[in-house]
Amino acid sequence: MMKPAKESIDLAVIVRNINDSLNFYKNILGMEFVGITPVWFGTMHRLRFGTSDFKLIEPKTLPPQGAIGLENQLGFRYVTFVIENLSQLCSELKSKGIEFTVQETEVRPGVLIAMVKDPDANIVEFVQRI
User: Phi and psi dihedrals of 54, rounded to 5?
Assistant: First the structure.
């Protein structure tokens, strides 16, 4: 059985255009830029959210894009960020023209969510527990 060394997980995402993705995650969402690391298949740009590292991979060779949408293929389908300011963030994202797949909504008592698409049409979920 695994024994966690920290209270979070890290995630890597292969991206089509590193500048678009850095703009979205760093400038629009406000994630902290940590650094750049060369890897055998490209360049990793590390961002931080809380104690999680969110790694954007700029590949040496661009692979084909998989099916878009939550229900269109197997595998990891979206990433969730638990935040404290969902309504404010949604307003900011709407003003910047970010495409929502799920508008801000209460999915069960005390739990609000919203989902958007990143520059590669990956689904990004935001959750606020009230």
Answer: -115, 110
Q: Residue with structure tokens 């960020």?
A: 81
d(CA 112, CA 127): 6
The answer to whether 107 and 93 are in contact (CB under 8 A) is no
User: Whole-model pTM above 0.70?
Assistant: yes
- The Cβ of residue 62 has, within 10 Å, a number of other Cβ atoms equal to 12
Report the alpha-carbon distance of residue 126 to residue 83 in Å, rounded.
7
- pLDDT tens string 19-52: 999 999 999 999 999 999 999 999 999 999 999 9
pLDDT classification of 5: cutoffs 50, 70, 90: very high
CA-to-CA distance for 81 and 41, rounded, in angstroms? Answer: 27
* Type of residue found at 45: H
| pLDDT band, residue 67 (cuts 50/70/90) | confident
For residue 22, give both structure tokens: 């850095």
3-state secondary structure of 22: helix
